[in-house]
């Protein structure tokens, strides 16, 4: 005979009523302890915050700013919280599981522009391309005039100056963008305005990268940018190095080869912004320059800057003391750029915010050649630390 259980619907006994709150009281402190002390325990165990938003972790704000320091201190604490990347991934994974929407947890803080634009066939695009175009800090004409002033200050001091623009992925490979997305109209309009103005500006020392990237992409049939990353491929990094070398000295191309070395699986940085890693299989490339070897590298000022020296028994090197200022496109391309130079200092383009304008000016003053790379979206949005008034004034004083 099947046993039938009955459910008591009347008032519970005092003893039973006491057991449930006791259990809740036991669980609540444990959950609170994990919430408040879990990151601290993880820190003691060795876990450290990492860059998960394609930009450097913020510095602790200056206390001299008074009450204005509070929101910046909160942002600093959030960015440096241990286990943060795992929480972001878990949040995004749960969202994608329940609602089929990962990008909703990767917003800019503005509800209309996503941090990642999810395109067709698994292609991902950096939402900052849209944000910078649709919410610019400066007009394009003002930004290009500041860039011209930078060129004239450096060239006027007798130094050689080159400047180049790393095109956005949305510019060189827009083929897998969705048919519609927030900010699509202003993105297209602002890009067209920027590139037309750049062509008309005829900036001193300008090295075009967009043309060579689009030609190589068209001739090879292979995209110039990775599917799950905001940056260009290793082959494109090799092209970047070759174009700089050609502009400095065409003879540097002798005894130089870009060699395909196989395939590998990698995680793109845009998957990290979504909180859910996205893998893809990519082609790997190596730059071979006959006889070039590293003599030394001074890493004392990493991650903001470092100095390197090369020697060569066959391939020629660019020998004037060179300062290379660039953002993440240059940082990711260094293995395909450094072997062309005998004496090179690399400086992050956001260095004015970390080491100050005077230190940047000092680095320029000790160099004979200055090369500046700026990603398109920063110029389109007018958010370039190297073009701020304080930096330009410091350069004028130093040079």
From TrEMBL:
Which cell locations does it reside in? Periplasm
Q: Which residues form the AlgX/AlgJ SGNH hydrolase-like domain?
A: 116-333
Q: Which UniProt keywords apply?
A: Alginate biosynthesis, Periplasm, Signal, Transferase
Q: Where is this region: Disordered?
A: 1-22
Pathway(s) the chain acts in? Glycan biosynthesis; alginate biosynthesis
The reply on keyword Chloroplast is no
Q: What InterPro entries does the entry give?
A: ALGX/ALGJ_SGNH-like (IPR031811)
Instruction: State where it is primarily located.
Output: periplasm
Name-wise, this protein is AlgX/AlgJ SGNH hydrolase-like domain-containing protein
């Amino acid at each position: 005979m099947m046993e039938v259980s009955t459910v008591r619907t009347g008032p519970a006994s005092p003893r039973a009523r006491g057991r449930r709150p006791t259990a809740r009281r036991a669980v609540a402190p444990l959950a609170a302890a994990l919430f408040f002390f879990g990151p601290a325990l993880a820190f003691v165990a060795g876990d450290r915050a990492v860059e998960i938003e394609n930009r450097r972790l913020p510095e602790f704000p200056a206390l001299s700013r008074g009450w204005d320091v509070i929101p910046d201190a909160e942002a600093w604490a959030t960015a440096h919280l241990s286990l943060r990347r795992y929480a972001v991934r878990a949040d995004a994974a749960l969202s994608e599981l329940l609602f089929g929407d990962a990008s909703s947890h990767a917003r800019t803080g503005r509800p209309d522009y996503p941090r990642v634009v999810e395109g067709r066939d698994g292609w991902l695009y950096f939402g900052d391309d849209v944000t910078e175009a649709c919410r610019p800090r400066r007009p394009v004409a003002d930004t290009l005039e500041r860039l011209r002033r930078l060129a004239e200050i450096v060239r006027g001091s007798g130094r050689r100056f080159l400047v180049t623009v790393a095109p956005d992925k949305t510019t060189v490979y827009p083929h897998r963008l969705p048919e519609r997305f927030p900010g699509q109209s202003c993105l297209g309009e602002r890009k067209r305005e920027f590139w037309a103005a750049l062509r008309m500006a005829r900036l001193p020392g300008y090295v075009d990268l967009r043309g060579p990237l689009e030609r190589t992409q068209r001739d090879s049939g292979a995209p110039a940018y990775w599917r799950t990353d905001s940056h260009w491929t290793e082959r494109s990094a090799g092209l970047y190095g070759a174009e700089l070398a050609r502009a400095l000295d065409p003879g540097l191309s002798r005894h130089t080869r870009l060699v395909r070395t196989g395939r590998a699986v990698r995680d793109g940085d845009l998957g990290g912004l979504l909180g859910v890693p996205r893998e893809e299989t990519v082609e790997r490339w190596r730059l071979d320059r006959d006889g070039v070897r590293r003599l030394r590298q001074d890493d004392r000022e990493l991650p903001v800057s470092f100095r390197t020296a090369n020697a060569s028994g066959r391939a020629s090197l660019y020998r004037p003391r060179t300062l290379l200022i660039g953002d993440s496109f240059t940082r990711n391309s260094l293995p395909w750029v450094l072997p062309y130079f005998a004496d090179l200092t690399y400086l992050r383009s956001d260095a004015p915010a970390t080491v100050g304008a005077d230190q940047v000016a000092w680095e320029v003053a000790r160099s004979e050649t200055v090369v500046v790379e700026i990603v398109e979206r920063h110029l389109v949005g007018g958010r370039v630390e190297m073009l701020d008034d304080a930096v330009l004034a410091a350069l004028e004083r130093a040079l």
